[in-house]
Amino acid sequence: MADKSSSNAYWAANVRLIKICLVIWFVVSFGFGILLRPMLAGIKVGGTDLGFWFAQQGSIIVFLILIFVYAWRMNKLDAEHGVEE
């Protein structure tokens, strides 16, 4: 990864991946857990409504999944740009 254009492409892809992960997490935690909670109130999951489940459990589970997806995708991105460990 010697030239500047390759470095810029690598960081652009990295920042794009981070933005996508943050948007997904925001939609799940704030969107489903707070803004859309009244609309999800009629759907029952594990004895409680779906909006409450997203606020308490869903956002954490999605965050953990995003961590693994980010690590997997970054390893792939590193290999594509020749900066793997």
TrEMBL record:
This is DUF4212 domain-containing protein. The keyword Signal does not apply. Residues 8-84 form the Sodium symporter small subunit domain. Keywords: Membrane, Transmembrane, Transmembrane helix. The chain crosses the membrane at residues 20-40, 52-72. The keyword Transmembrane applies. The lineage of its organism: Bacteria, Pseudomonadati, Pseudomonadota, Alphaproteobacteria, Rhodobacterales. NCBIfam families: Na_symport_sm. It holds the Pfam family DUF4212. It comes from Albidovulum litorale.
